[in-house]
Queue: 2 jobs
Job 1
Amino acid sequence: MDPIRELIEGADPLRSGVGAVPDAEAALVRVLASPGNGPDKLPPNVRSMAAGRRLRNARIAGLLTMAAAAVTGVLVAAHLGSITAVPDPAGTSSMTPSAPPTATATAAGTASPTASPSETAGPTAAPTSLAGVGRGECSIQNLTGAMTSLEQLKPVLRLVGCKAGWMSIMAPAPSDNPNPEPGDWFWIAKLVNGSYVQETSLGNWAGAASNNDRLTAEQFMDKAFVTNGIPVELRPDLVGSPEPGSLAAEGLKTYEDRSTGYRVSFNYPASWQLVDPSGSLALTNGPGTALTDSSGQYTARLAFGDTNDWSTSGCQNRAPYKILDSQPMTGLPTDLASPAQGTPRFVYVAMTSAANDGGPVQAGIGITNRIAGQDGIGCVLDLAVAGPGPLKFFSFTDRRPLGGPSWGLYKFTTIGEAAAFTQTQAYKDLKAVITSLTITKVG
């Protein structure tokens, strides 16, 4: 028993009975004199506060040492007390942990962890490009606009191209028809807040090729881009170019008329222009058109109607003539009841004339199925053909008889000079236009 406790119990009068009371001083001397139990000592199984602090500091130092070892790859043992392993539950297997990542030291003393070979790859990163409706996707589904029937139209729209935040769609003609037939207009839309908003519509390449502004199809489409505020350099990406091998790709345009029950058409250079045909010198009371070249000069007139005069009664002079060029045009229709003197053909005829006829040499270019004269002597350059039914007569580039200074389209000094004209580009262009004429019955 503890000595102090014994002394206290021995001094208790209730427990010791009525015996003599012990001397307190003697008892204290006896306690202090006992070995191993001084006033600054604790029993052997009780840890002092100083010893507790020393143990705590040692454990903290050990933890810090292990943390440093985890970074450097060196395991340092510290006395943290014994660790008792917990056995696995019955029926389970113990998996050997994979090797920890290794580290490669750098010159700066930092470490670059190397992934363990057994490490499983994480999820694939999301693509950097935006996708989906409202997220910049170039698709018909991402198209918006003011048209109330746009959603009904989407099934018949066709994506043509996208470039630099612009989209082009091949679409029906702009309308609110919920069930339109697929057409061939270009719709142009601009990317705004993740969606493509329809900005404008442009005609197709056929429309561009039929412009009457002395522009090629490409020039006309480029002008439309500029007018609508679309970067013109994007035109090839958004709408492409005329189909290779087409007339538009070759810089040509086409005229067409169906007012007579016949389809009348011809091709001409893009830099030429269709103008009022009222200046026809040969035919009246019928449709037609006229052409001016790139300089604005009249080059040809296509006319249908009644002839002014097929006789030679208006001739003032008979003169020699020479056919300088000729090409059959057997596809042109003729009036079988009309007194023809040959099949339709393109001709270039020069004729000498008197001064009062605008001489010395006048020439005519056009189509005819008549002969100007006999034995190389003629009076009228009958450059017209008698056609069937409503066609009546037709001429291209017009009938040019002799008869006065204002008659005759081309004037030269000599026949040789007139012949040399056939080698010029102006003549070749005009001949190509006239020989491209086709006339076919509609229906």
Note: The first helix runs from residue 3 to 10.
Job 2
Amino acid sequence: MQKIRILKQPKTLITFLAVLIFISITTFATVALANQSTIKVDANVVNIRTGPGLSYDIMTQVVGGEKINVISEENEWYKIRLSNDQIGWVASWLIANTEISAASNKTGTIIGETVNIRSEGNTEATILGKATKGTELTVLFQQNGWTQVQYNEQVAWVSSDLIEVTAETKTATPTSLTKEDTKVPIQTITVRSDGTNIRSGPSIDEKVLVKASKGDSFTYLSTAGDWYQIETADGQKGYIANWVVDLSANKTAAPTANVTSLSEATIVIDAGHGGEDPGAPAPTYNEKEVTLKTAKVLADRLQKAGANVILTRNSDETVSLNQRTVISNQAAADAFISIHYDSTENPNEASGTTTYYYYEKEKPLAETINAQLQQNGLLPNNGVHFGDFYVTRENRQPAVLLELGYLNNTVDQATINTDSYRYSIVESIYQALNQYFAP
């Protein structure tokens, strides 16, 4: 018996030590995961997808220096939360490398009369919206009687019994294309920044043929995944990544609105800044206050004309730049108008209004609005200019940004926060939109 006791004691001790080691390792791993829950993106651009795989649609992109929070990991993909609380997936091996891939998913057709679209694959999940019979959605994958779909720029779920999935595939539209762009052939590729590589094939591993400068334009030939084949002026053919260029079907094209009157249009009005972001200061008020006042008066004027008007904010609240573009994209806005007031480093250096656009196809909208501001405005007019602003650059709908005076100009700031000035601005924009949407 004594011998047996001697043999049992070491086993008990070993078991106890093993448990301690396991707990220590688990605790260390948990702490390590917690310490690494925030990742800084080192690559220039990384695609964020709607699911953990290259077959999922690109929902957005993050750029170098941006931080993302890791929620979980699945098959070498990180489920992450972006700064605006969007949830998406990023390949773990791409945090320091630019992703090259094409998205291709099946199409599903709603077969129920009115079907709930939910945030998760269960009947208790939040209802994000409803889809009617015949509605087509991009299908990401299916499991446990539920189908994951792309709905209003986010991942959502629908009961598999209520959607018919076809074998037909559709390739994700590049993020720089709008609904209007897809109706006509792409004609021109325009480079966004200096030193952009044109390569011999559709991969960052291919040989660099030449470097392009910002503003250089090339003839579009075809699409290969996330790359466009282009032809240079001297007839040389090469490939350029779709995330570093802008597309144009016809640089001199007329406005591409799908409606024929202002009363049929959906207009998103974006009051710049708000909440924790006061914008530029004036002696007795901040930019965020006058942008909201102007936006509300404009919304009322357009609603009385029959337009469907959406405000990105209607109070002094913080709204991220990304959320402002999401609102526009989800609403399929016929026009997005961002209201701002300007400032300079030194007082009284500049005065007046300026109209900005990002994509060439939006220039007609910008020119139409600016013409009315020039004709009816109470301050000088500085014309129409290209401007690299997030809310116009990342917007897939026709978008302009208006700077309606300088808050550190003595004359401008005294004029801006008055009813008469707001009336002149609002009437100018109203008349311009009436003209823009005219058949």
Note: The longest strand covers residues 163-171.
